[in-house]
Structures are given as structure tokens and as C-alpha cells.
Design goal:
This protein starts with a strand and ends with a helix. It is built from 15 helices and 14 strands. The chain has 2 domains: 2-154, ATPase, nucleotide binding domain (Nucleotidyltransferase, domain 5), CATH 3.30.420.40; 203-385, ATPase, nucleotide binding domain (Nucleotidyltransferase, domain 5, 2-Layer Sandwich). The longest helix is centred in the C-terminal third of the chain and has 25 residues, at 302-326. The protein is of the alpha/beta class.
Length: 407
């Protein structure tokens, strides 16, 4: 089966085509075609590559209103142009979508129906940029491939198993009754990483306690015991928890009431500050990219050094919190852009956490290529770097849902 996966974000659109069947190995496979759009203000970076090595990359100006047309152009390159890997659009068997917020009810992958779309739309008040982008991706597939079944996979779904003590905020109980609770995010990749660690170690996931560190522009940790999410750092929205590329992570909520009371910022100003002007970018003043932060730090930039130090401090604090939720752990996983590529971040965190039995081999850490262990054989905790595989995980769910539909 040829499975098209759309990973729609607020500032990017990633798409991938996989060839899978019901007997496909549990080992991840590379897509036969990948396309990506990144938007920075009014600038668009358009890139495509296929398994034959053909690539396209362009950089151009595009209006916000023109983004959906750009995504359509991107997808049409699957069956038209130099990077095409299909004879026609009709070869696509099904399409899968990463939907960021599924709320309390959409906790399992589902076939997209009008009712499912309404439910996703209703949750847009919580995740307006991400859920709306997901709905736009669904609408585009309906336009380009009207007969293709679509599957929605929810980033919040894996965290449905969190106990009440972990998912309930200590506000009035009325909050919980109104749906204000901790949902958690990055669940697709957290679940994948726990399963991948089990495969790599050759151990039963039921007997493993894993702390998964998804560190990218958005960052979250998950405490996974017996294959289930027992705690996580993100909450009602993706703002809670760790310091991130442009997000604050957890802060004293009294800061917000103070800023409103003193008229430093209004409601919309706060949203922009918390989500887009804080984190690594806000502290360093130069970038939300950890690579830029590390380079500037090495060149003596004090604010870049402070941004890095805050990131490590918060990461270590939250790893400790996840360890407490699990009552100890055997596996620590680093994944996603920073987790996979920043030896400095991994070393900074692991050095401070030696008291938890965490050790890494400096040479392995510096040269690691996922999926690989960076802890020495004698270490009490296995430390792994595992490549994020959200798109492949979604494609696998499409295959599984296809089997259910046939039965």
C-alpha cells in the first residue's frame, strides 16, 4: 500500500509517502518521497526529495493566503514533475494526518468523517494554529484524492493513560469538569521511542521504565511505565513544561496577571510573547535554534550561554520529576532535532544527573548516529539516541486501520 502522511504545523508542512503492507516489519523504513514547506514570515522554503536521489529546493516570497496553494503544489509533485514516484494520484491507498489535539474523546486513531472533523474543529480553541492546519490538510486531500480514506492520529492520544493525579490541575474542580486538564503532546513519538527502545534492548516493554526526551523547537518529556504514559511535561496546551525554541515553558502564572494588570500586555500580546518571543530566542536574542545558541556561546555570547544553561537546568529538573513519577527508570531516550543532534545538550544534562545512575561515553555521544546507545555497558541507566519517526508511525496506523476496515 502507498500511504501518504501529512504532518501539518503552524509554520511548516511535512509530507511523506511510504510503501507498506500488513506484514511490514516493525523496523522503521524510509519514505520513498518526502516534501517539506517551511514558512518564516513571508518567506517560503520548498524542498522535495525521493528515493532515487532527485531533489528540488526553492526559496521564494509567498503571502499567508498563498500557503495552501503551495501545499497543493508540493503534493502534486508526487505524480508530476522530476521528483514524481507515482504514475497517477490514484495509486495512493490512504492518507494519514498528525492532529495535535484530540481532547478527552479523540484518543485513538480514527477514520476521518464529518463528525471527526467537527470534533477537531471544536478543539481549535485550545490549539488554534495546529488543529486548523490539520483540518486544512484533510480538506486538501479531499480535493486532490476524493476517494482516498483518511486517518487522523492524535498527538495527545498516548497520554490518555495518565492517572488522575497527573492530569488534574490544582484549580477549582470545576476546571476539570469543563475540560481544563493536562493532555500532553508529542505522544506519537514518545510511544514510538518507548517501543523502539524495547526492540533495541530486546526486552519486554511491560517491564521497562522509560523517560523519553523529545527535544526540538517544541520540547516535552514523558514518563513511560509498562508501555503507558504515566506523566508528561506539557499540559492543557504545548506551553507547559520545558523551555523551548520560542515558548516559555512553565512560568509563575502570577506573571501573566501582573502583566495584564499593569497593562504591559493585552490578551493577544501575551499569546505572542509566550509562544513566539520567549524560550531560547527570547533569552539569547539571536535564535531559537540550539545550533546557533551553542556557536554563539562558544564565541563568548553571555546571553546565549544563559539560554543554554536555563535549557539544561529545566531539562534536568523535569527528568528528575519524571523519574519520581516512575519510581526510578532503566532507559533514558533523546529524540527529535535537539535530542538527536546536540551532543552538548545530551552531555550537559547527563553530567548533572550522574546521581541517578546516568553515564555517557563522551566519544559515543560526540559521534552518535541514531539509533544507538551512548552509555557504557556498566551504566545503571541505558541512554539512547533514537530518531523521531512520527510519519512512519502514522503510516503504520493507516495500514492497521485499513485492516480493520476490511474486517
Amino acid at each position: 500500500m502507498k500511504i501518504l502522511v501529512l504532518n501539518s504545523g503552524s509554520s511548516s508542512q511535512k509530507s511523506a509517502l511510504f510503501e507498506l503492507d500488513a506484514k511490514s516489519s516493525a523496523e522503521p523504513v524510509a519514505p520513498v518521497w518526502e516534501g517539506k514547506l517551511d514558512w518564516d514570515a513571508d518567506n517560503e522554503v520548498f524542498s522535495i526529495k525521493n528515493s532515487s536521489g532527485k531533489q528540488i529546493r526553492t526559496n521564494r516570497k509567498v503571502s499567508r493566503d498563498g500557503r495552501q496553494a503551495s501545499v497543493e503544489t508540493l503534493l502534486r509533485n508526487l505524480w508530476n514533475g522530476p521528483t514524481a514516484v507515482l504514475q497517477s494520484a490514484s495509486e495512493v491507498h490512504s492518507a494519514g494526518h498528525r492532529i495535535v489535539h484530540g481532547g478527552a474523546n479523540l484518543t485513538q486513531p480514527v477514520i476521518v468523517t464529518s463528525e471527526v472533523k467537527r470534533a477537531i474543529a471544536d478543539l481549535s480553541a485550545i490549539a488554534p494554529l495546529h488543529n486548523q492546519a490539520g483540518l486544512e490538510g484533510i480538506a486538501l486531500i479531499e480535493k486532490l484524492l476524493p476517494s482516498v480514506p483518511q486517518v487522523a492520529v492524535f498527538d495527545t492520544g498516548f497520554h490518555r493513560t495518565m492517572p488522575a493525579a497527573a492530569k488534574t490541575y490544582a484549580g477549582p474542580y470545576d476546571w476539570y469538569e469543563r475540560g481544563i486538564r493536562r493532555f500532553g503532546f508529542h505522544g506519537i513519538n514518545h510511544e514510538y521511542c518507548a517501543n523502539r527502545a524495547m526492540q533495541l534492548l530486546g526486552r519486554d516493554l511491560k517491564h521497562l521504565r522509560v523517560i523519553s526526551c523529545h527535544l526540538g523547537n517544541g520540547c516535552s518529556l514523558a514518563a513511560i511505565g509498562g508501555g503507558k504514559s504515566l506523566d508528561t511535561t506539557m499540559g492543557f496546551t504545548p506551553l507547559e513544561g520545558l523551555m523551548m525554541g520560542t515558548r516559555t515553558g512553565s512560568i509563575d502564572p502570577g506573571i501573566l496577571t501582573h502583566l495584564l494588570r499593569t497593562k504591559y500586555a493585552g490578551e493577544h500580546d501575551l499569546d505572542a510573547i509566550l509562544n513566539h518571543k520567549s524560550g531560547l530566542l527570547g533569552i539569547s536574542g539571536i535564535s531559537n535554534d540550539m545550533r546557533d545558541i551553542v556557536e554563539a556561546m562558544r564565541n563568548g555570547n553571555k546571553r546565549a550561554k544563559l539560554a543554554f544553561d536555563i535549557f539544561i537546568h529545566r531539562l534536568c529538573s523535569e527528568i528528575g520529576a519524571m523519574a519520581a513519577s516512575l519510581g526510578g527508570f532503566e532507559v533514558l531516550v533523546f529524540t527529535a532535532g535537539i535530542g538527536e543532534n546536540s551532543a552538548e545538550v545530551r552531555a550537559g544534562a547527563c553530567t548533572q544527573l550522574k546521581f541517578l545512575g546516568i553515564e555517557i561515553d563522551p566519544a559515543k555521544n560526540a559521534a552518535v548516529k541514531p539509533d544507538a546507545r551512548i552509555s557504557p555497558p556498566s551504566a545503571k541507566v541505558d541512554v539512547w539516541v533514537i530518531r523521531a519517526q512520527e510519519d512512519w508511525s502514522i503510516a503504520r496506523e493507516c495500514v492497521r486501520m485499513s485492516g480493520q476496515a476490511k474486517s
